[in-house]
Structures are given as C-alpha cells and as structure tokens.
Design a protein that fits this description.
single chain; alpha+beta; 6-stranded mixed β-sheet; 30 strands; binds (3S)-3,7-diaminoheptanoic acid; binds zinc ion
Length: 875
C-alpha cells in the first residue's frame, strides 16, 4: 500500500490497534529501524522518532482476518475477504494517521491464491493483474490505483470467489462507466433491482444536482456479514447482502424500496462525503445528514412524495425523538464521544437530514441548488465542517438564518406550543408561538441556550375544506417594530420564520374565521407540536387538507389523543376521540362510486392513515394536556401498549365491514397483477397488510383463518410476511403451522431465514421470551452474523409486551444476549443496548428492572463500545 501524506512533525504518530495488529517491520527510506529510541509501539499507536521529510515509510503488519469477528478492518465473510474502515477500521489493517482530514492517494497490490480468490478488488482502477511468475505458484496479484485523494476510512479491499453482474451507465458528458455488482455465485440472479437502482441514482444525481460520476468503474460487493447497511468506499461500495439481493420470493416491497434508497445513498456519498469529506468525526452529519436528505429526495422524485415524507417522519419520530429522550441524547454536532461508532445515530442521520430539509424549505428549491453548487465550487477536495455548510447556505439564502446554527449545537426535540385566534375586526388570524427547549445533556453542555429557527409552514382551511388564499403576514420584532412580509400570489402555504422563544404572527386579509388551521405542513421542522384542536377540526383536516402530510398527521393526532385519553383514564375524551378516529378511518377507506379503484385516495396513503403510531413514536408524543389535571410523566409501557391495542380493536370493530370489503377488493385487484415491487400495487399490498393485522388483532378466532389463507396463497414475500406477521401475534394453531411451513420452504435462503427469525422475535404473544431463547440454539441462528442478531435479539426488544414483561424476563434476556454478543462484536452489542437507554422515562417497576440489568452489565468487563452505552443509560 502506498500512501502520500504530509509529515508535519519529526515524531510521526500513527494510529494502530495492537489488539489485532502484530508489527513486523518498519523501514524508512529502505532501512529497517528498531529499538525504543527509534520507535515505540503502544496499544493504540506507533510513534516513529526523528523522521525527516521527505521519507518513504514502509510498515509491515500481520493479523488474523479470520478471527476478526468485530467486522472492522479486514475480515472474512464466508470464504471471502472484505474490509470495513469507517470510522476507525483502517488502523486494524496497518499503522496510519487514521483520521478523515488526512487525504491521500492509494495504490493497492493484493496477492492471493488464484483458485480461492479469483477476484481481487480495491478502490479506483485496475492497473495490472498477473500470475506470480514462478511455475508451481498458485498465487496471483492485482494492483489498483485510485487517483482521487481520500481519507483512510474510504479505503476498501475485497478478495474472493465472486460472480459479476455487469452493466454500464453513460454519463451526461458522454463517458461510459462500467457498473459491476459482485455476489456469491449462487446469488448472482438476485442483482437486477440493485443494478437498476444504481443507474437511476446516477441519472438522478446528474438531473437534480448536476453531479456526474468521476471514474470509469463503479463496483458494489454484497457480503453476508456486515455490521450496518452499506459503506460508500470510493468506487468499491461494500453492502450488507440484504440491501442488494432481491427477488419477489426473498424480498418484501419494503426491502426493494430500501435497496433502491441505500444504493442511492451510498452512490450519492461519492460527492457528499467522498469528494467533500469531514474534517473530524464531530462533523459526521455534514456527510450523513446531507446524504440522507439526498436519498430521501431521490425516493420522493421517483415515487410518491407524500408517502415517502410520511415514512421518513414516522422513522424520525420513532427512532430519533426517542433517542432525544434517552441517555444517548446528543446534538447533530456532538461535542464528545467515547466510541465514534456509537454515534452513527438517528440524530446524526435523520435529524441531520431534517436540518438540511429546513434549509431547503427556507431557501426554496432553486436557491438551495445554487447553494449546493457553491458548496462544491468552494470545498471540492476538502475536509469540511458543518459551519462551512451553514456559511454557504447563509450566503445564498434571502432569509437571514440567525438562530439556525443552534440546530447543530443544542440537543433535544423542541416543543412548539401554538395557539390561534381569529380577529374578526381586523380580519386577521393571530398565531401565538412559543418554543420550549429541553435541558442540554450532561455530555453536551451549552453555555447559552438560544431559540432555534423553526420554519412553520402554515395554511388555513375554510368550511368547505378549501385553502384560503394568503397574502401577507406581520410579525412584531423584539424591538417593537412590525415587519410585514408579502407572500407570492396564489400561495396557500406560508413558511413563517419563527426564531424567538415566543412571538405572534398575524396572518392578514383572512375574510372569515378559518374552519381549521393546518400547521407545520410537510412537517416543516423536527419539533413536537402542541396545538389544541377539537376532534371536529382534526376530522376536517383529515378529510380536506390540501397538504397530504397533514391529512395523515390529523388522523395520527386523533389516534394520539384517543390513546392518551385512555392511558390517562379520561373516558369521555377517549370515547370522543376513538369515535372520531374510527370515522376518519372509515372515510379513508371510501371508494369512488362506479370506480374500479379500491380506494378514492392513494391506497399507500390510506394504509398510512389507518396505521396507529407505534409505541416508540407514542412515548415522546403522549398528549398530556387533554385536561389540566396533573399527569405522571413516567411511562407505563405495558399499560400504553394495552391501551394502543385496545384502540386498534375499538376502531377496527367500528369499521369491520369496511375493512373486510377493502381486504377483498385489494385481494381481487392484486390477483389481476403480476408482481412488481413498485407502483400502485405496493400501496394495495401495504393496505392489505394493514387490514389483516387489524382484523386478526380484533378477533383472532374469526380472522386468523383469513390470514392463514393469505399466507398460503401468497405469490410473493410481501404478502407472505404480512400474513405471517399478523399470525405471529396470535395464539392460534395457524401461527405454528405457517411458521413451520415457511421455514421448511425457505430454509436455504438466508434472507428468508432472517425474516423468519425476526417475525418470531417481534411476536406480542405473552411469554415469548422462552421461544426466542430457544431460537438462539436453532440451527439457523449464528451469533456472529449481525443480520441474525439484529433480527432475533433486536427484534425481541421491539415487542413491548415481552421486552417490558413485568417479571423482568425481557430485560434479563437482553442483558444475557449483550454479554454474549459483546465477546464477538462490540459494535453490534452496543447497538442492541439501545432500548435500555430510555430506562429513566419509565415508572419505577420498569426502570428498576432495567437498571438492575444495566448494573449487572456494568460489573462485567464489557467492550468500550458497550460500556459507553451502559454508562449513558445509567446516567
Ligand atoms: N458511512 C457508512 C456508515 C459507517 C458506519 C461505521 N460504524 C454508511 C453510510 O452511512 O452510508
Ligand atoms: Zn451515509
């Protein structure tokens, strides 16, 4: 390996992990050096003294890749070798300044056995490949050169017996790029969707951002053993095989969607991450937030924008909002960490993407593009900071962005309190806003908390459900001066720039009292909105809002109100909101008279409207101010889960016939169509899945047979898994039969086996912990394969009834599992610990149960990754 970097000091300090590396030799300008006066090897570094520039330093290390079960550095997946260097894996290969701001060009030569490793890949272009010249040698070698300077975390190497699927892409300037997807030979037939996704991503980045690929070759390698989803190594992306391989029998619609989005995400990193990288790991969101935003936009441009937005917000609320309420709460730009691998979080990724989306909302599409162009013009080839990005956005924005930078430094989800009043005399709507910010976490202190810039997209609806046209709004500044802003003619949504702790906007020329105010359209800021609305207003919005996101959101709010009211035993409110929710769900299922379509609205959107917020989503969003009576803020997860299930049942009962009718209509419509993982049929399937779940939850004796029939007649993995999921929560014999059938039929397909483990782990059947424990010794389970660990152990923790079992058995299971996994793979065990980090949000029974296990873990000698999370959970 040849790396060019600047030596700024006479003592050269190189990162290296002595727990895996054995240093063999160090040569400077061809001369071997040794002895304490020349160099020192410590646990995490190698110091070479008296290095004068320029110098050629040659370092030889040995390590056993086969025993590298951490899957960081160079390791074996099956019979193949591959690497994972982000964030600090390169130091497990050799001694090096392993930090993102040291950018070098790499030439890599790989020597290996010809038979076992016919394919040898690295970054950039293949310079030469040859047999080793001696007659009886079975070795060969390949040399690769990457002309683009890059940090070590983007280095990659792969060697093995892999089969190539090849295609090409012609760039906007007419250059032909070879595209290759490498898989185990028996999986080569499963790559078509990933290849098509890559081509679409390349085209989209040119169309939307003018960004063209900068080499003649782009490789993707699919491996079964991988800690996360995928990795954007320059021109040699390495992917978890579940995000590459797909056929209708092995992948659900959701997997197809994820493959497209992750292939896009890794490809988009070529510019946002690789060409412009991070100065240090505190800036991680510079590349991740921006690239998530880009992959979200990619999905939105290719498919339904509102459906994608709803999915993204659900994901944000269930993962990131929950993280903000946990011991792991941190700002988008953290100020400290123990293990950077623990900081690939929903806050860095998803909240980071929301921050980019707020720039986008405030600047508008054209100016945002102008600012991105400027970002590349100014910073291409550099290692940058989020401040650099902010500076570019501020320069182009016509709205002053003061206060916006606090989104990077202040942790936690702001609460936006809103109230409105119609002023008949002046024909104005007064909107009073207040933002409440959480106390900063101990690990990320803030000297002076200031208000964050919250863009509040607002619209007004009349009695018929039409948008009222908007003309201007006024705002009284702290100085007392009133500023009036005119909005573009014909606009029905105004983006109100709220930058203070409290303030009032007056929306002018409103001729009548609006029937409802539609706030935070498209979820224009990642905040929790507190705004009192009646069931009638919410129903009006759910039916008529021109903003599809807020139609969905109003239904969700009805559900949150219904669940909160039952949880806090406010039965009158519970009845009102449950009834309103059932009516809204019934309305969503309406079909056009004499029409062949199953529902009037997009079936995918209907499925989203019918779905109730998950427990993870509900936690931070429980509405405590239905009445003024004081409420215990500590959660009882079992009660909440029970109340949620009840809401599912009550509303399903009220519209059982509509559900059945739509279920049959979707079945009939799908029967006419050949499976494709896109278009209206995916919406039909998600609606069908939503309904079968509701029906089985309502009455398993009556409906489990329907789910079983759906399972048996399914012609694709999506419907098969939907039916299996619905059955997995029931105690009927249909459940065991379907699970057995599934395993017998699909035991040789790894992705199906993983799905099978996951569906059993997530089951809500009481005492499921013993079943899950038994699965740990099942022939299909392997503690060394992250996908299986996440499916079985991670899946179990998402079952509220079992994870939070009152006897503590769920917590004990998680702690036992963490102890076992931690010996093998600390990055994975640290991730499994996530559910314990919210311990302090729960009532004593649950919190103490978790703390008991956390203390047990604290006493064990855990890896650095796992102890950081345990420590933060206990804080
Ligand atoms: N950048 C990688 C994540 C690396 C995680 C290291 N623990 C994948 C991605 O975000 O695209
Ligand atoms: Zn990424």
């Amino acid at each position: 390996m040849q790396c060019d970097f600047f030596l700024g000091a006479t003592s050269l300090i190189l990162d290296g992990d002595a727990s895996i590396l054995s240093l063999q030799q160090v040569c400077i300008n061809g001369e071997e050096i040794s002895g304490d006066t020349k160099m020192q090897v410590e646990q995490d570094k190698l110091t070479i003294h008296n290095v004068t520039e320029p110098a050629e330093i040659r370092i030889t290390t040995r390590f056993n890749a086969k025993e590298n079960t951490e899957l960081a550095g160079l390791y074996k997946s099956g019979d193949n070798f591959c690497t994972q260097c982000e964030a600090e894996g390169f130091r497990r290969i050799t001694y090096f300044p392993d930090r993102p701001d040291v950018m070098s060009t790499y030439t890599t030569t790989i020597h290996a056995d010809r038979e076992k490793f016919p394919v040898m890949l690295s970054n950039g272009n293949l310079v030469s490949k040859q047999k080793v010249s001696s007659k009886d040698s079975s070795m060969h070698s390949a040399t690769w050169h990457d002309p683009w300077p890059k940090p070590s975390y983007l280095f990659a190497l792969v060697a093995g017996n892999l089969t190539a699927t090849r295609d090409t892409f012609c760039t906007q300037s007419g250059k032909n790029v070879d595209l290759v997807i490498w898989t185990d030979p028996h999986n080569a037939h499963l790559t078509a969707h990933a290849m098509y996704s890559l081509q679409r991503a390349m085209k989209w980045d040119e169309d939307r951002f003018g960004l063209e690929y900068d080499l003649d070759l782009f490789n993707i390698v699919a491996v079964d053993d991988f800690n996360m989803g995928a990795m954007e190594n320059k021109s040699l992306n390495v992917f978890n095989s579940r995000l590459v391989l797909a056929s209708p029998d092995t992948a659900t619609d959701l997997s197809y969607e994820q493959i497209e989005s992750v292939v896009g995400h890794e490809y988009f990193h070529n510019w946002t991450g690789n060409r412009i990288t991070c100065r240090d790991w505190f800036q991680l969101s510079l590349k991740e937030g921006l690239t998530v935003f880009r992959d979200q936009e990619f999905t939105m441009d290719l498919h339904s924008r509102p459906v994608a937005r709803i999915n993204d917000v659900r994901n944000l609320r269930s993962r990131q909002f929950a993280e903000d309420k946990s011991g792991m709460s941190h700002p988008v730009r953290p100020i400290s960490y123990e293990k950077i691998d623990n900081f690939y979080t929903a806050t860095i990724y998803e909240k980071g993407a929301e921050v980019i989306r707020m720039y986008y909302t405030l600047l508008g599409k054209e100016k945002f593009r102008k600012a991105i162009d400027l970002y590349f013009e100014r910073h291409d080839g550099q290692a940058c900071t989020t401040d650099d990005f902010f500076a570019v956005m501020s320069e182009v924005s016509s709205v002053p962005l003061d206060g916006f930078e606090r989104w990077y430094t202040q942790a936690g989800t702001p609460v936006l309190k809103a109230s409105s009043e119609y002023l008949k005399d002046t024909q104005q709507l007064r909107l009073s806003l207040q933002q409440v910010l959480p106390t900063p976490p101990e690990a990320h202190p803030v000297e002076h908390m200031g208000p964050q810039f919250i863009p509040v997209s607002t619209g007004l609806l009349d009695d018929n459900g039409n948008d009222l046209p908007l003309t201007s709004y006024s705002y009284q500044e702290d100085s007392g001066q009133t500023i009036t802003t005119t909005v573009d003619q014909g606009t029905t949504t105004a983006v109100l720039p709220f930058k203070a702790f409290s303030g009032e906007f007056l929306i002018n020329n409103v001729p009548q009292k609006p029937a409802a105010v539609s706030l935070l359209r498209d979820f224009s800021a990642p905040v929790v909105l507190h705004y009192n609305q009646t069931a009638e207003e919410l129903q009006h919005l759910a039916k008529h809002d021109s903003n599809p996101f807020n139609r969905y959101e109003s239904t969700q709010k009805l559900a949150r109100l219904a669940i909160s009211a039952s949880y806090y035993q406010e039965s009158n409110h519970a009845t009102t909101f449950n009834e309103a929710l059932a009516t809204t769900h019934g309305n969503a299922l309406e079909r056009e008279d004499n029409s062949k379509t199953v529902t009037k609205l997009d079936p995918a959107a209907v499925a989203q409207m019918l779905s109730l917020p998950s427990i993870e989503e509900l936690g931070p969003l429980l509405i405590q101010d239905i009445t003024d009576s004081p409420k215990d803020p500590l959660l009882d997860p079992l009660l909440l889960n029970g109340v949620r299930t009840q809401a599912i049942q009550t509303t399903a009962e009220a519209i059982e016939n509509d559900l059945l009718q739509t279920f049959n209509a979707t079945t009939e419509a799908l029967h006419q169509l050949e499976y494709e993982p896109h278009g209206v049929q995916t919406g039909l399937r998600s609606l069908k899945g939503q309904i079968i779940n509701r029906l089985v939850a309502l009455d398993e004796h009556k409906h489990a047979n329907r789910a079983h029939a759906m399972f048996e007649t399914a012609t694709n993995m999506t419907e098969r898994m939907m039916a299996l999921t619905a059955l997995s929560h029931s105690t009927s014999n249909y459940r065991t039969d379907a699970l057995d059938q599934f395993y017998q039929r699909w035991r040789t397909e790894q992705l199906n086996v993983i799905a099978w483990l996951g569906v059993q782990a997530r089951s809500e059947v009481v005492n499921n912990v013993s079943k899950v424990r038994a699965l740990l010794s099942h022939e299909s389970f392997d503690m060394r394969t992250p996908n299986k660990v996440y499916a079985l152990i991670g899946g179990f923790s998402t079952s509220p009834a079992n994870f939070h079992a009152a006897d503590g058995s769920g917590y004990e299971f998680l702690a036992d599992s963490v102890l076992a996994v931690d010996q093998i793979n600390p990055q994975v065990s640290a991730r499994l610990l996530g559910p314990f980090t919210t311990a302090n949000n729960y009532q004593p029974l649950y919190r103490d149960g978790m703390v008991q296990q956390l203390l047990r873990l604290e006493r064990a000698s855990l890896s650095g990754n796992a102890s950081e999370i345990v420590g933060k959970a206990l804080r």
